[in-house]
Amino acid sequence: MAGYTPDLAYIHDAGFGDLARAAAGEVIRMLRARGIRDGLVVELGCGSGIGAAELVRAGYDVLGVDISPAMIRLARANAPGARFVTGSLLRVKLPRCRAITAIGECVNYAFDPATRRAELVRLFRRIWEALEPDGVLVFDFAEPGSISGSKHIEGEGWAVLVDATEDRRRIVSFRRVGKLYRCTEETHVLRLYRAAEVAAELRRIGFRARIFRSYGKLRLRTGCAGIVATKPR
Asked: Class assignment of domain 6-144+191-230?
């Protein structure tokens, strides 16, 4: 399943970066509170590199992973001080690191056909092995019961129409090319997870896990949750 082809990747970068910036700020705050002021942060589903750029400016090394080649091209331009690879977050080899993030519901997207709860648990186990003691995993995701509906959003030279149910989003994008607009369409399928069940899986592995509903002052949308999971010393 294709996801975030060039026009939608461009629009996401141009108009939807607030969550990535807020999440990066919270990750930086958490790491500094633990006395961790440098080292490697792995961003799974890194998107266009907005969060990576914030982390690099704060003094961290960054490895970004995204399944969309278009997103990776934008990320390399937005955060030239980071390293990026194209691939599935479920399959990428995880190096030893201080923190791992997965921001923007990327663990839900079924761009990789393997996306399901059992594979997510396997990913959590690999994250446990990769994290250094006192390292953190920060991610957010969609739960069952998300609000369905349609909306229209536009910016300078672009617009999107989104028709969403709790587990499927049909997105029609319009991007200005010269004097005309190019139209593209994508449908994103999501696998939904309940926060309490995800937190319980993390605790069984050995993490300390806390559910949250906002990155600082930026509240997650209705039907979404986040988890901070810490690997004890």
From this structure: alpha beta
